[in-house]
Design goal:
alpha+beta, six-stranded mixed beta sheet
Length: 199
Amino acid sequence: MRRVLPFFLMIVSVAAVTSSLNSAPATPALDPKGAAVLLADAALIENSLRVSDVVPENPTLLNQCSRSTLAYRRVVRAPRATSPPTEAEVAALEAKLNTLLADRLEAFREAYPGEGQRTPQVGDYHRQYSAFDIGGWRVIYVNGFPSRDAADMPEWRQKPVIWCDGGQCCFGVEYYPAIDAFANFEFNGTYSGPIRLRR
């Protein structure tokens, strides 16, 4: 039964994407220049899961300090390194990510109306992608961070961007290529705690 995704995860994943695709207005495509594929290093993953620090000295994409990731949930077992995301997987992912992101940003505006002017747009994010195996499932983890700050991080195409706090300026989400669905979307937390969305 190692290929059985937890029932709640599948329902939430498919429902979130279906709702996003059916109800959200057309959104601009993501800029492919704002994306990078990072290799998942098996040794770094193993070492990073052993340390007590939130962000180890040599972090992986899963060592985010202001939101949960596969590494901390471990729904089935600890994530393992696998082959990097393919061009086809990235294309399928990005074809839907902009709509999902637009939906989550709109939900944020509804939940925090006073923050509307500071809320990013879909095109305001760069993305990093790494693939992992968790319980027999191939998962691509998406790490989103502000495009405006990419120039100050010249190695963002080779090294994970770890952003503490940041709120809606940073996000993470899991993509399951086998079922073409997203799960566990989260914006970063803030000094006052995690961001909570009504839908």
